[in-house]
Amino acid sequence: MLNQTHDPDAKSWVNDANDHAEFPVQNLPLGIFAPSGSEDRRGGVAIGDRVLCLRGAAAFLHGAAADAARLADAASLNALFADGNAAADALRQGLFALLTDEKRASDAEKVLFDATECDLSVPFVVGDYTDFYTGIEHAKNVGALFRPDNPLLPNYKYVPIGYHGRASSIRASGAEVIRPTGQTRSSEGSPPHFKPSERLDYEMEMAIWTSGANQLGRPIPIGEATGHIAGLSILNDWSARDLQAWEYQPLGPFLAKNFLSTVSPWLVTSAALDPFRTAQPVRPEGDPKPLDYLWDDADQQHGAYSVSMEVLLQTAKMRDKGMAPHRLSKGPMTAMYWTAAQLIAHHTVNGCNLRPGDLLGTGTLSGPDASSFGSLLELSNGGKSPLTLPSGETRTFLEDGDEIVMRAHAEAPGARTIGFGECRGRIASR
Amino acid sequence: MLNQTHDPDAKSWVNDANDHAEFPVQNLPLGIFAPSGSEDRRGGVAIGDRVLCLRGAAAFLHGAAADAARLADAASLNALFADGNAAADALRQGLFALLTDEKRASDAEKVLFDATECDLSVPFVVGDYTDFYTGIEHAKNVGALFRPDNPLLPNYKYVPIGYHGRASSIRASGAEVIRPTGQTRSSEGSPPHFKPSERLDYEMEMAIWTSGANQLGRPIPIGEATGHIAGLSILNDWSARDLQAWEYQPLGPFLAKNFLSTVSPWLVTSAALDPFRTAQPVRPEGDPKPLDYLWDDADQQHGAYSVSMEVLLQTAKMRDKGMAPHRLSKGPMTAMYWTAAQLIAHHTVNGCNLRPGDLLGTGTLSGPDASSFGSLLELSNGGKSPLTLPSGETRTFLEDGDEIVMRAHAEAPGARTIGFGECRGRIASR
């Protein structure tokens, strides 16, 4: 539902917000931060190059917005989203009024921090992390590498395929990526060796954070699912392809994934994303219609997001030479074969309970051609076709010192573009 | 390390403990309870048919044992095991002295509850739940059903196969089992239907609870892994076989498992299990030796547990007629192809971090013949051979009103047998 907080002409008295590529006053993403050198974490909102402390801002807000700011004065956003999105929506209204009213600037400035002085963390205590597999082009590309004769399995167009990931190893942007060690095989039929992964990869995903909860045994109908989306971040689901190929049968990926998953620390809320809701791409002729529990006309009309995502790589050599990160790909979030609401309806249809702050990964989102492939596995055709970088170096998979930067922006005609910030990680040797 | 708390002749002044099949003073399992009608959860220890409240007992303990009792005065045991097993070991020593010293009975009796007046819950806040697949006979049996030509995959004898399960839907014994609904196919090639599972099953597993933590990126060497085992409970990993068959490729089980997992609420601690440590069964001739990171001579000598497990079924009709539950199987925990220490070493070898109170399932433990098969899938040969029950009823999978009861006991020559209590669940219709 659009309201004044989406007005593309709205301006903040925080001047650098107005031309900011990520965090204008139309965005107001929520996060958890501690001032540098402190461990005293609390909620904050990004505005331009600054972070407004919600503990401090509570004094300048009123009613439901002040109550919500106090809920966000915590080491996670779980309490703010415990009962759904209403509290965060009220907070957004209050913050928008505060940050657009010049007369209130002198008060609010007292609780503004420079973003460079804020240490951001994962915005939620993640009870469970589920990774889906909604990128059908990715599923086809990877399927062709693992099962050349059978790339897309018969269940794919019926079942929103997903599996449980690891909650303990989710970290915020900037966390070091320690190259995992494990079992790999040099060739089919040979015994495994134990060594550091030689096929370390990133996966470009979006993170869907949940709000509210359902009781165990009580599915969330698809018509109510959108109300359980707190918002989105960027997710890099680091993957060790050589470990994965050897371990994944029959129960799925395990050590190939659970050594680290990195999220961008700002939660771009559902309310901020309202102007960017768009129609789910029409299924190709011949694809089956989803079963009833996955189908909702309104969701098909508005359940996708106009978000573009890009991945950049900067090697150690490029850094030394002062060369900018090189873009590896750029693609749209509409590469999802299933909507976020379909994922929630599916996840709970058997009675499984979601809790506030659960993390649902979209799975790697690749477009139909290499310019939008969301992993090196795809870009290098399973390691067979090295990429050449502007530094003259080549890459099939990630080498020590490589840094991956992911960015995303929500863009739509008539709306002020908003960004997600960065999801960054550099490979360290073991 | 055996000490006076393992003396098989030790007696408690709690008289019913001394002949108790589960909870003599040699056991002292820890749990979380609230007195009936209250929500005020705190730690307790089972002694005979009673529960000693650790909040109350702290006043009658001294030094490290009193400190530990205060750590256990919480809604979970996570704090008690935050730094490893030392606190729980001290608590055990103090509780043993308290419960065997007649002179201290009049004090301690004030904080004893009848077990029937205690509402027990899951003993830990589970950060992550990992389910392994260590039952090699189960893996062969199930593999033969899903992949007749390829029952045991090439990685099985090298990789302790595991995957991440759902933390939010773990419940304590007694939780209702609401039959899950989902997508199933009546035959290969046909489109799926949406309906309640018709192949609802149990899985007889043991739960390994972790203590202490490792930093992300820092594996736990196998020689240190045993110190990260807080203790064991029983685990029933309820499974919907029809959902599983359709959804599990390529990323593993998801909705087929995450609707509920039930644990017995008493943590039988590592210290209590010391007399029952036994040698890991020798690998059959021709099986590969595990890679070095999975191998430790001491672990091979003592890393398995002499625990017997049994599964009983009582149908609604049997309950109505006053018939006792019927034993479906009984088997040993030494059916594990990998030790608990090997699971921990493997889980962390890529840098994945464990936290206190993580739950590691052993996977279904089946012996080599039907008397010890740990699931109906195996007992009914994939649903093709119905079992006949003493009531004259037949079963391939679970029907509404069926109740599954799992029990386990640690038994060894010269040691007082100790029990795990029950892991119970009744099927409710949707």
From TrEMBL, chains A, B:
<dbReference type="InterPro" id="IPR005959">
    <property type="entry name" value="Fumarylacetoacetase"/>
</dbReference>
<feature type="binding site">
    <location>
        <position position="133"/>
    </location>
    <ligand>
        <name>substrate</name>
    </ligand>
</feature>
<dbReference type="GO" id="GO:1902000">
    <property type="term" value="P:homogentisate catabolic process"/>
</dbReference>
<dbReference type="InterPro" id="IPR011234">
    <property type="entry name" value="Fumarylacetoacetase-like_C"/>
</dbReference>
<feature type="binding site">
    <location>
        <position position="131"/>
    </location>
    <ligand>
        <name>Ca(2+)</name>
    </ligand>
</feature>
<feature type="domain" description="Fumarylacetoacetase N-terminal">
    <location>
        <begin position="26"/>
        <end position="123"/>
    </location>
</feature>
<feature type="binding site">
    <location>
        <position position="237"/>
    </location>
    <ligand>
        <name>Ca(2+)</name>
    </ligand>
</feature>
<dbReference type="GO" id="GO:0004334">
    <property type="term" value="F:fumarylacetoacetase activity"/>
</dbReference>
<keyword id="KW-0585">Phenylalanine catabolism</keyword>
<feature type="binding site">
    <location>
        <position position="237"/>
    </location>
    <ligand>
        <name>Mg(2+)</name>
    </ligand>
</feature>
<feature type="binding site">
    <location>
        <position position="257"/>
    </location>
    <ligand>
        <name>Mg(2+)</name>
    </ligand>
</feature>
<feature type="binding site">
    <location>
        <position position="203"/>
    </location>
    <ligand>
        <name>Ca(2+)</name>
    </ligand>
</feature>
<keyword id="KW-0106">Calcium</keyword>
<dbReference type="GO" id="GO:0006559">
    <property type="term" value="P:L-phenylalanine catabolic process"/>
</dbReference>
<comment type="pathway">
    <text>Amino-acid degradation; L-phenylalanine degradation; acetoacetate and fumarate from L-phenylalanine: step 6/6.</text>
</comment>
<dbReference type="InterPro" id="IPR036663">
    <property type="entry name" value="Fumarylacetoacetase_C_sf"/>
</dbReference>
<feature type="binding site">
    <location>
        <position position="261"/>
    </location>
    <ligand>
        <name>Mg(2+)</name>
    </ligand>
</feature>
<keyword id="KW-0460">Magnesium</keyword>
<dbReference type="GO" id="GO:0046872">
    <property type="term" value="F:metal ion binding"/>
</dbReference>
<dbReference type="GO" id="GO:0006572">
    <property type="term" value="P:L-tyrosine catabolic process"/>
</dbReference>
<dbReference type="InterPro" id="IPR015377">
    <property type="entry name" value="Fumarylacetoacetase_N"/>
</dbReference>
<feature type="active site" description="Proton acceptor">
    <location>
        <position position="138"/>
    </location>
</feature>
<dbReference type="InterPro" id="IPR036462">
    <property type="entry name" value="Fumarylacetoacetase_N_sf"/>
</dbReference>
<feature type="binding site">
    <location>
        <position position="248"/>
    </location>
    <ligand>
        <name>substrate</name>
    </ligand>
</feature>
<feature type="binding site">
    <location>
        <position position="205"/>
    </location>
    <ligand>
        <name>Ca(2+)</name>
    </ligand>
</feature>
<keyword id="KW-0479">Metal-binding</keyword>
<feature type="binding site">
    <location>
        <position position="364"/>
    </location>
    <ligand>
        <name>substrate</name>
    </ligand>
</feature>
<dbReference type="Pfam" id="PF01557">
    <property type="entry name" value="FAA_hydrolase"/>
</dbReference>
<feature type="binding site">
    <location>
        <position position="244"/>
    </location>
    <ligand>
        <name>substrate</name>
    </ligand>
</feature>
<protein>
    <recommendedName>
        <fullName>fumarylacetoacetase</fullName>
        <ecNumber>3.7.1.2</ecNumber>
    </recommendedName>
</protein>
<keyword id="KW-0828">Tyrosine catabolism</keyword>
<dbReference type="Pfam" id="PF09298">
    <property type="entry name" value="FAA_hydrolase_N"/>
</dbReference>
<keyword id="KW-0378">Hydrolase</keyword>
<feature type="binding site">
    <location>
        <position position="147"/>
    </location>
    <ligand>
        <name>substrate</name>
    </ligand>
</feature>
<feature type="domain" description="Fumarylacetoacetase-like C-terminal">
    <location>
        <begin position="133"/>
        <end position="427"/>
    </location>
</feature>
